[in-house]
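Supplementary material to the annual report.
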Amino acid sequence: MKFIKCKELKDKNTDLKFGRNFTDYMFMMTYHDGEWDYRNACIKPYEPFVLDPSTSVFHYGQAVFEGLKAYKNDKGEVRIFRSMDNMNRMLESCWRVCIPAFDTEVVHNALVELVKLEKDWIPTAEGTSLYIRPFIIATDPALGVHAAKNYILAIILSPVGAYYAHGFDPVSLYVEEHYKRACKGGTGHHKVAVNYAASILASEEAAKRGYDQTLWLDAQENKYMEEVGSMNIFFVINGVVVTPALGGSILPGITRRSTVELLMSRGYKVEERKVSVDEVINASLDGSLTEIFGTGTAAVVSPVGKFGYKGRDYVVGDGNMGKITKYVYDELTGIQTGKKPDEFGWVERLV
Ligand SMILES: *Cc1c(COP(=O)(O)O)cnc(C)c1O
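Predicted assembly:
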């Protein structure tokens, strides 16, 4: 096997657009004849899939994915963050769309081996990392809506910089009143492909109005904050950190959980509960809303500078990154890169 490296890309290290560049190798495993084929699972050169036009995933979207990151510091040490949580969440996503369960240990080991093999691709500049994308697609070459009998599980790697085009500048959110991302009993609690197709129209419309992302409201009452496109959401009101409780329609983010655990352990007041748009607007108007931030693997922590609702804009704090937002960012990225001690046992050092 040839081992060609894209030297130019690796040396550039910064200005890596999210999800555009991929490393030389990928992991691949198939499911057929009633079982995952662990014996033929392999790490092989990154290459296209050749699939029949009738392949089920193209038509019915039976697919799940995950997203996590590997970080490399100046000393060349490589770490991944809470990766078994991603494996377990992927297993739960599989359950929701009838994809057969896989051995999380086997896939986790494959992920570790792949990252180690590709460690030279991990950028080291501030805010950069190697994004890891495990995913599963249904590959039956046949039409008809039912659970497929064939699947591909693959892992691909992408060196990335900051998630948003304008780096760590605060983002703006559009509170979406009309379209819904998820409802109780639906698939919003799981990282399944269909959720994202369903959210694109609202994203496009928010972008046309000049906002970076959609802030979703609950489907039942249309008044409670749920989350952002690929991030969970936090509000700081009267010094208390508040995040919407997971109620079946919110994606249980690993960064969300880490943020809650981190802030609680450091003595912050944290509440997981319902948060209505009215509460946040009133807090913005009376000055008690000091910060809003999103959390997710891709962006880690993203400050929110303003949000729009029913044609009006509300500024958050002074429009700049807030103190708690900065604290969570520094602490989480510190732990992830090995700059700060990992008192929670969240990181796994690979190299
Ligand atoms: C992946 C994702 C998140 C963030 O989850 P992390 O585990 O923190 O990366 C939040 N919301 C949605 C809709 C997501 O898909």
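Confidence is low (pLDDT under 50) at residues 1-8.
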